[in-house]
Amino acid sequence: MPELPEVETVKRELAALIADHPRIERFEFLRKDLRDPMPIRRLQALCGARILAITRRAKYLLIETEKGGILSHLGMTGTWRVAGPGEELLHDHIYLYLSSGLRLAFRDPRRFGIFETYDLRELNRSPRLKSLGVEPLSDEFSAEYLFKKLKTKKAPLKTALMDQKLVVGVGNIYASEALFRAGIKPQKRSDRITKEQAQRLVESIRSVLQESIDKGGSSISDFLGTQGSEGSYQDSHQVYDRKGEMCVICSTPIKHSVMAGRSTYWCPSCQT
């Protein structure tokens, strides 16, 4: 599933494509079987509107226009791409035609994505967004904030970090990678974290996410950028998906277990 770095990569690429603020000429809906029904009439009402900006909140892409907003979530296998004539693909759901001549395609083979409208004036009260936690790359995400929040939880630390009400966008890959970099075992109880560990963890989460963004995200299975390119951060993973391989620091074999239904990787020597 695309996590924050992958969604941020798509956001930046889409923002570059609409830098001259083109208008939405029309939508073409090829399939309507996403996770939730698409509000076709409300989307069609946006035709003719100029696109003002493309931003991100958590793992949601937000397309702001003169008439309202479009909220897009990639789900597990969703992608946005530039699709010229003859570049149609199986499982394409939506074509978005722009006045600049571009055709953008939203494709989602497993159909867990979201494509709907939102009111620009009530974005923070949107049912999708109102309960989300802080952004991990923002000033709000501090050691003090994290320490205070974790002290109220008894769940394993990795599970807590993936709680979108605490901090957004830290999914399975980056939780494992950040905990390794911070030297903290993923099974550690959240309420037993120290202030010093909270500081290390905030720094490691930020650095791991930023490095992944700089490398276009991690392309584990389905993720591609808008030009069809893969991210390369998977080549820098230090623990994720490296079960049995030697730790890059101490050469101890990397351990693997399943926590809250998700694969978890750690070094038993470097992480305490």
What is this structure, in a nutshell?
The protein has 272 residues and is an alpha+beta fold. The chain is 23% helix and 21% strand. Strands 1-6-7-5 form a four-stranded antiparallel beta sheet.
Describe the model:
With 272 residues, the protein is an alpha+beta fold. 38% of the residues are buried. α3 crosses α6 and α5 crosses α6. A hairpin with a 4-residue loop joins β6 and β7.
**Spans of 5+ residues with little confidence (pLDDT < 50)?**
none
Q: What's the total number of strands? A: 10
Which structural class best describes the helix and strand composition? alpha+beta
Query: How large is the count of helical segments?
Result: 6
Strand fraction: 15-25%
Secondary-structure element order, as H and E? HEHEEEEEEEHHHHEE
* Mean pLDDT figure: 93
**Biggest sheet, open or closed, and with what strands and sense?**
4 strands, antiparallel
Strand ordering within the main sheet: 1-6-7-5
Helix content: 10-25%
| Cα distance spanning the termini | 28 Å
Radius of gyration: 20 Å
Question: What general outline do the C-alpha atoms trace?
Answer: globular
List keywords for this structure.
272 residues; alpha+beta; 4-stranded antiparallel sheet; 10 strands; 23% helix; globular
Layout of SSEs?
Layout: H1 4-17, E1 24-29, H2 40-44, E2 51-57, E3 60-65, E4 68-73, E5 79-82, E6 92-98, E7 103-107, E8 114-118, H3 143-150, H4 157-161, H5 172-182, H6 195-214, E9 255-259, E10 262-266
Antiparallel strand pairs: 1-6, 2-3, 3-4, 4-8, 5-7, 6-7, 9-10
